[in-house]
Specification:
The protein is α+β, with helices and mostly antiparallel strands. The protein folds into three domains: about 1-215, Glutamine Phosphoribosylpyrophosphate, subunit 1, domain 1 (4-Layer Sandwich), CATH 3.60.20; about 230-370 and about 475-545, HUPs (Rossmann fold, 3-Layer(aba) Sandwich), CATH 3.40.50.620; about 395-465 and about 555-620, no CATH class. It is about 40% helix and about 15% strand. It contains 28 helices and 20 strands. The strands form six sheets. It has a six-stranded antiparallel sheet. A five-stranded parallel sheet has the order 16-13-12-17-18, with helices on both faces. β12, α7 and β13 form a beta-alpha-beta unit. α10 packs across α28, α13 (about 380-390) crosses α14 and α25 crosses α28 (about 605-620).
Length: about 625
């Protein structure tokens, strides 16, 4: 059983495997989790301590056993402190500090870690299992509590499915939510019996029972507002430290490079410390995207790489290339996922691996931390419309008829309409996808009648009718960043046995972002003011003043052309969606109408149904 679970994770660690078994007696059956026994294992992608870093790792008397996926970037400082206190290390692995930190801090150790990690820590004398996940949610960790009391866990759901008897009943509420977000919000998953351990939390299972607890971000030094001067200085410090620390590696490193502000900052700082850095860029068909303009920016990336004196590798893709990758994308996404830019990450990770690169640095997260999305420039304007509405004694609306992606309407009209929405609905309208009404047109009557509105996620963040500008950005950091950006980075890089690293996800950067005022994010229409100002001496003006573009895939254009057969198949009467009773009669006509809507872009909503259909076909085939 353990071998089968580990085999499902081979892509995450092709270099070696390790196992540990603590059973009550030799005749006991194997199980995962606390039930008087512990069985664990892992697949290793060797990045640091290539010779002696195999797992499990232990403390000095081997009473604490560790399996973990990830990297601890402040390992050198933590190790130095522990050695000064008399702790002895067996390896040069960054993970070994976790074993010794348990004696110092107990379960409070995780707040001291600057890194990305999914941890399973078995403490034999206490018969205690601790599962823990990093603060930003870079590394995944899923678990299921079985009817017999056992706890089974893994980095990916496909590994859990190898455990005998795991309940595979679908979570229909998660399916309803999926087209709204393009992903399933955690802790929910596509299966009713499987949950994601929340980021920044730990699950403790011992003779006292099981409980899930948050741990503190100890890199949060203050929550007080900053002056502009303090803000710029601190932005420079935390970002530089995050990038530099994430160069910890015994294997060659590379970086994503789009030519935009965020990846250029990461590349520039990394190249300064690591002259052998290689950059990787994707080139699209040069389609005019109505959201961000021209889709291809590869020439700009090459220009900046030449300026840095680093070797740049360009991967050119077309609609046909991405189409050929859809089944791979579906498999490694692990559950329904339709963030099309993940196809680009998959292409780049594959190209990097072919060049012998096993670590890639990314500029993801700067938008959520420093205020980089195009709609952020309109937050105050929409709030002003809302304030005027309240002043007249009028009520906010929760009608999802308009969104920021209603590009057929002038920007002034869009902002006016968004300003009339209550805050949770407006949070959806800025940049999420399927409305409740559109899902109601495509999903079956049973789906419509049995499931709660996806707007509940925004209401749970804050039920207030009005939010400050900072709150909208904070909501993106809490949802969009971990559930979309981190998920696609981890799954699509690890699909190629490449480790993706995100400096802007560092706990210190996230803590700093919490202190920024809206004016330090967006000033006089300029996005990411603090970040641009902090690195004004590092970047040429052509990069520093370049408008936000994003890593965009022209999905609407392709669905109207070379991918249209996918749409027809998805909404046909013999599709997996139809066999599962998930779509309404005549859904294809409604899907075509959405695709050709003269006002809004709905390509990603429809792509969600395509990927859900593909996932169902892969997982269930004709067995509905």
């Amino acid at each position: 059983m353990l071998d089968t679970m580990l085999a499902a994770l081979y892509h995450r660690g092709p270099d070696s495997a390790g196992e540990y078994r603590a059973l009550p007696d030799a005749a006991s059956d194997c199980s995962s989790g606390f039930a008087g026994s512990f069985v664990g294992g892992m697949r290793r992608l060797s990045i640091n301590d290539l010779e002696t870093g195999d797992q499990p790792l232990y403390n000095e008397d081997k009473s604490v056993v560790l399996f973990y996926n990830g990297e601890i970037y402040n390992y050198p400082q933590l190790r130095g402190t522990l050695e000064s206190k008399g702790y002895r290390f067996r390896t040069r692995s960054d993970g070994e500090v976790i074993c010794h930190l348990y004696k110092e801090y107990g379960a409070d150790l995780f707040g001291h870690l600057d890194g990305m990690f999914a941890v399973a820590l078995w403490i034999e004398p206490e018969q205690r299992l601790i599962l823990a996940r990093d603060i930003p949610g870079e590394k995944p960790l899923y678990y299921s509590q079985l009817p017999d009391g056992d706890l089974v866990f893994a980095s990916e759901i496909k590994s859990l499915l190898a455990f005998p008897g795991l309940d595979r009943s679908l979570n229909y509420q998660a399916i309803w939510d999926f087209p709204t977000f393009l992903w399933i919000p955690e802790p929910e998953t596509i299966y009713r019996s499987v949950s994601a351990l929340p980021r920044g939390h730990m699950l403790i299972s011992d003779p006292a029972g099981s409980r899930i607890l948050p741990y503190e971000n100890l890199f949060r030094k203050s929550q007080e507002p900053m002056s502009d001067e303090e803000c710029v200085v601190e932005t420079r410090r935390v970002v530089e430290e995050a990038v530099t620390s994430r160069l910890l590696s015994d294997v060659p490193l590379g970086c994503f490079l789009s030519g935009g502000l965020d990846s250029s900052i990461v590349a520039a700082l990394a190249a300064r410390e690591y002259p052998k850095l290689k950059s990787f860029t994707i080139g699209f068909e040069d389609v005019d995207d109505p959201y961000h303009g021209r889709a291809d920016e590869s020439s700009l990336a090459k220009e900046f790489a030449d300026l840095l004196g680093i070797e740049n590798h360009l991967t050119r893709v077309t609609a046909d290339v991405f189409r050929s990758d859809l089944e791979t994308f579906c498999h490694f996404a692990d559950q329904p996922f339709s963030v099309s830019s993940g196809l680009g990450i998959l292409s780049i990770a594959r190209a990097a691996k072919e060049q012998g690169i096993s670590v890639l640095l990314s500029g993801d997260g700067a938008d959520e931390c420093f205020g980089g999305y195009s709609w952020y420039a309109h937050l105050a304007e929409a709030n002003a419309v809302g304030a005027e509405l309240l002043g007249r004694g009028e009520a906010f609306s929760a009608e999802q008829s308009y969104s920021y992606q209603s590009f057929g309407a002038p920007i002034e009209e869009r902002i006016a309409q968004l300003g009339r929405l209550d805050a949770p609905t407006r949070a959806w309208a800025w940049h999420y996808y399927a409305s409740e009404a559109h899902k109601g047109e495509l999903f079956s009557a049973d789906m419509r009648s049995e499931h709660a509105s996806s707007l509940r996620h925004f209401q749970a963040f804050s039920p207030e009718a009005t939010w400050s500008e900072e709150m909208y950005i904070a909501q993106d950091r809490a949802y969009y960043f971990p559930f979309e950006m981190m998920r696609k980075m981890d799954r699509m890089t690890m699909a190629c046995s490449v480790e993706g690293r995100v400096p802007f996800a560092a706990p210190a950067v996230l803590a700093h972002a919490e202190r920024l005022s809206y004016g330090q994010c967006v000033r006089e229409g300029q996005l990411k003011w603090a970040l641009r100002t902090a690195f004004s001496d590092v970047l040429p003006d052509t990069v520093r003043h370049r408008p936000k573009h994003g890593f965009n895939v022209p999905i609407d254009h392709w669905l109207k052309g070379r991918w249209n057969d996918l749409l027809q198949e998805t909404f046909s009467s013999d599709s997996a969606l139809a066999r599962h009773g998930l779509i309404s009669d005549g859904a294809i006509g409604r899907a075509d109408a959405l695709l050709h809507d003269p006002v809004g872009l709905h390509g990603h909503t429809l792509f969600s149904y395509i990927m859900l259909n593909m996932w169902l076909e892969k997982e269930y085939g004709n067995n509905c």
